[in-house]
């Protein structure tokens, strides 16, 4: 079909569905840990990176099973079944109704959901990691030796399907997650967000099995990684046995394996170990790169996602694949040729060094963004402290004096002060002077570590007040907003928001906070007092804010209200994350692509899989570094952690640059050709020797 074996279309569709399944699930994973399983940021990050590390450790196991035991087809089939089961278990584990016996929308037995989620993730890691080294190689097996051009086109299609699956799923799955679903109560739809990837994985499996009769199935031929490990193990063991000084030293420690293994294999392993030695600093790059799905996603949760349409925090990860599609051709066809014209010797190792530097700068950019976000966070009182805000609901200015002689504050009509911090033990009372009135109010029974709003209003007969506890202890999560109403009428009123959440408020009293979704939506505020009903369209509340809305009066059916900002909305826009994504993506283009190209160019043809395993291992170790830092770090500020990671990678970048200067590039083909020549000469000498022996025997 179009010059390709028909079987490869099944493989490409299979890969698209599998990548959609994996990246779709992974996109929402951190927020699932934080908001459904109620884990804190650090623990969510630790478990996320543990999962990713496992996904990059299991490919080694998959390669060994495929090459030494089951073959590629059976390995892909069996591990895909494990994969699909894992996705299904994860989806089931995210159904709150599974243990929500009191029907309040929250799981009653969170341990059950954690257990199911962890079992599902372990099965997914085994599945996705196990098939990772097999699928592309299995696709390559479908071509004949004379189909080099078609095989090359297949690999382009194959990697296109990977990026397409990643791009579409990262766009779609967070939107599904953000929708409301549930049997008893409506909440974020994690079961469907994980269920769609589970369905796609089942489709992937069905498509793969459908092409079974068309596949060219190569039998297992042994795994070179096992052979390499055995050779290295024998060399170490043999060297230890002959550690005495009476045994002559050998040129290289691997030469101690020459008693059992041929010279060609030993020299090939030497070439591989040279490259693997350069891999030692590489995990640090991946430690930063894979935080797109953890720390950077969590950073986006406290930012403004209004792009005209609401962008979910976990959707910002889509910036990376979009920039990859743009930057790869730009770098290959514009940047590299320009550097070449400038006669700069931009070797692969120098490219990788630049990639590390760009990634470290990406985290500097992330730290700068975090500093701006931190400035928008409200400051809450510590133990032994109390915060008080003054709210003047009257039409006259007022002066408030905190006793005993602590602070004097002027408050304009229909305004509120910022929260002021006092030592709880020092506050005794306050006096309010407004118009001709001057009254004192006791501040008894204040609790330490709490926020209060002291609302007051001037009347002819005196000043009426209400000390309200503001029971908000943190900035609203998930971009939601908190809204409450205070009655500034002289009579009780019924207040509703979009004709829901009716609350009856006595004069100068406030209701409880209600959670409303973030965004640019406006709500209808309705107030009914005695026989009058009034409505007004609310302001846009943004993301992560808290407001107290004063119901003031009614004029011709129009409700007059005053907005008091308790907690400012998220003011730092998600677009400010784009520079850090841009720097990281540029780093990935010159680091990751070049790294694989360099590794393959420096390794013998039969050792490519060893270097592939080594490369994947650096990704796993990088994620292990993150979970160690996130678990052990005592840094209280997130920007400081970003700076720490940037500094570590910058230091590693310098070390790698020094290591690269001592590396000598080789051509494995020339080395192997030299061995071929030596073997031919050896065979010729053996033939000549046998001929001479035959002549001598005939003379006798």
UniProtKB/TrEMBL annotation:
Predominant location: membrane
SUPFAM superfamilies from the UniProt entry: MFS general substrate transporter
GO molecular function terms attached to this record: oligopeptide transmembrane transporter activity; symporter activity
Keyword set includes Cell membrane: yes
Ranges of biased composition (kind: Basic and acidic residues): 681-700
Membrane topology: Multi-pass membrane protein
Superkingdom of origin organism: Eukaryota
PROSITE patterns xrefs: PTR2_1, PTR2_2
Xref: Pfam families: PTR2
InterPro entries: MFS_trans_sf (IPR036259), Oligopep_transport (IPR004768), POT_fam (IPR000109), PTR2_symporter_CS (IPR018456)
UniProt KW keywords: Cell membrane, Glycoprotein, Membrane, Peptide transport, Protein transport, Symport, Transmembrane, Transmembrane helix, Transport
Chain spans, region Disordered: 674-700
Catalysed reaction, written as an equation: L-tyrosylglycine(out) + H(+)(out) = L-tyrosylglycine(in) + H(+)(in); L-phenylalanyl-L-phenylalanine(out) + H(+)(out) = L-phenylalanyl-L-phenylalanine(in) + H(+)(in); a dipeptide(out) + H(+)(out) = a dipeptide(in) + H(+)(in); N(alpha)-formyl-L-methionyl-L-leucyl-L-phenylalanine(out) + 2 H(+)(out) = N(alpha)-formyl-L-methionyl-L-leucyl-L-phenylalanine(in) + 2 H(+)(in)
Ranges that cross the membrane: 46-66, 73-90, 110-131, 152-172, 192-211, 271-289, 318-339, 351-371, 610-630, 642-666
GO cellular component assignments: apical plasma membrane
Gene Ontology terms: biological process: protein transport
Subcellular location: Apical cell membrane; Membrane
The protein's role, per its UniProt record: Electrogenic proton-coupled amino-acid transporter that transports oligopeptides of 2 to 4 amino acids with a preference for dipeptides. Transports neutral and monovalently charged peptides with a proton to peptide stoichiometry of 1:1 or 2:1. Primarily responsible for the absorption of dietary di- and tripeptides from the small intestinal lumen. Mediates transepithelial transport of muramyl and N-formylated bacterial dipeptides contributing to recognition of pathogenic bacteria by the mucosal immune system.
Quaternary structure and partners: Interacts (via extracellular domain region) with trypsin.
Family: Belongs to the major facilitator superfamily. Proton-dependent oligopeptide transporter (POT/PTR) (TC 2.A.17) family.
The protein's name in its UniProt record: Solute carrier family 15 member 1
């Amino acid at each position: 079909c179009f010059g390709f074996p028909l079987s490869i279309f099944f493989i490409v569709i299979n890969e698209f569905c599998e990548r959609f399944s994996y990246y779709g699930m992974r996109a929402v994973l951190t927020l699932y840990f934080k908001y459904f399983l109620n884990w804190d940021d650090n623990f969510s990050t630790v478990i996320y990176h543990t999962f990713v590390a496992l996904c990059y450790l299991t490919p080694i196991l998959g390669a060994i099973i495929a090459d030494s035991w089951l073959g590629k087809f059976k390995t892909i089939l069996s591990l895909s079944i494990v994969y699909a089961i894992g996705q299904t278990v994860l989806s089931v584990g995210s159904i709150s109704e599974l243990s929500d016996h009191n029907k309040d929308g929250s799981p009653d037995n969170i341990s059950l959901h954690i257990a199911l989620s962890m079992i599902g993730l372990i099965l997914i890691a085994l599945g996705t990691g196990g098939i990772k080294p097999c699928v592309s190689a299995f696709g390559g097996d479908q071509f004949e030796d004379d189909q080099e051009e078609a095989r090359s086109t297949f690999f382009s299609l194959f990697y296109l399907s990977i990026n397409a699956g990643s791009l579409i799923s990262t766009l779609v799955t967070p939107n599904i997650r953000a929708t409301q679903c549930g049997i008893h109560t409506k909440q974020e739809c994690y079961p469907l967000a994980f269920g769609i990837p589970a369905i796609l994985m089942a489709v992937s499996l069905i498509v793969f099995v459908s092409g079974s009769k068309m596949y060219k199935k190569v039998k297992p031929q042994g795994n070179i990684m096992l052979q390499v490990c055995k050779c290295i193990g024998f060399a170490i063991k043999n060297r230890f046995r002959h550690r005495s000084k009476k045994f002559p030293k050998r040129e290289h420690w691997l030469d101690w394996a020459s008693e059992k293994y041929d010279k060609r294999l030993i020299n090939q392993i030497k070439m591989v170990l040279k490259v693997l030695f350069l891999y030692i600093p590489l995990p640090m790059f991946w430690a930063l790169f894979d935080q797109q799905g953890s720390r950077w996603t969590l950073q986006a949760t406290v930012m403004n996602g209004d792009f005209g349409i609401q962008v979910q925090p976990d959707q910002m990860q889509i910036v990376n694949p979009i920039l990859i599609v743009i930057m790869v051709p730009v770098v290959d066809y514009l940047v590299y040729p320009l550097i070449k014209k400038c006669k700069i010797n931009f070797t692969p190792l120098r490219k990788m060094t630049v990639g590390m530097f760009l990634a470290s700068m990406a985290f500097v950019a992330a730290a700068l963004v975090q500093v701006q976000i931190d400035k928008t966070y409200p400051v809450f009182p510590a133990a032994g402290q109390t915060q008080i805000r003054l709210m003047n609901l009257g039409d006259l200015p007022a002066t408030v004096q905190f006793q005993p002689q602590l602070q004097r504050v002027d408050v304009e009509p229909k305004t509120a002060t910022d929260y002021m911090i006092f030592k709880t033990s020092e506050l005794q009372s306050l006096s309010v002077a407004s118009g001709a009135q001057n009254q004192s109010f006791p501040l008894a029974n204040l609790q330490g570590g709490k926020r209060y709003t002291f609302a007051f209003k001037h009347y002819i007969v005196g000043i009426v007040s209400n000390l309200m506890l503001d029971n908000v202890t943190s900035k609203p999560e998930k971009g939601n907003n908190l809204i409450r109403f205070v009655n500034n009428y002289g009579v009780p009123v019924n207040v509703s928001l979009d004709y829901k959440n009716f609350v009856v408020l006595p004069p100068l009293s406030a209701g409880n906070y209600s959670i409303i979704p973030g965004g640019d939506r406006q709500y209808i505020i309705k107030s009914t007092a005695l026989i009058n009903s009034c409505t007004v369209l609310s302001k846009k509340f943004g993301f992560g804010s808290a407001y107290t809305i004063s119901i003031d009066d009614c004029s011709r059916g129009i409700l007059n209200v005053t907005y008091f900002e308790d907690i400012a909305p998220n003011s730092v826009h998600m677009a400010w994350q784009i520079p850090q994504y841009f720097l990281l993506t540029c780093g990935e283009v010159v680091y990751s692509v070049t790294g694989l190209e360099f590794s393959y160019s420096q390794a013998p043809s039969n050792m490519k899989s060893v270097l592939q395993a080594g490369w994947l291992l650096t990704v796993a170790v990088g994620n292990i570094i993150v979970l160690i830092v996130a678990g052990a770090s005592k840094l209280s500020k997130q920007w400081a952690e970003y700076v720490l990671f940037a500094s570590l990678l910058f230091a590693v970048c310098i070390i790698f640059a020094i290591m690269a200067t001592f590396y000598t590039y080789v051509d494995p083909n020339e080395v192997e050709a030299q061995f071929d020549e030596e073997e031919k000469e050896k065979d010729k000498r053996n033939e000549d020797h046998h001929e001479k022996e035959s002549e001598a025997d005939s003379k006798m």
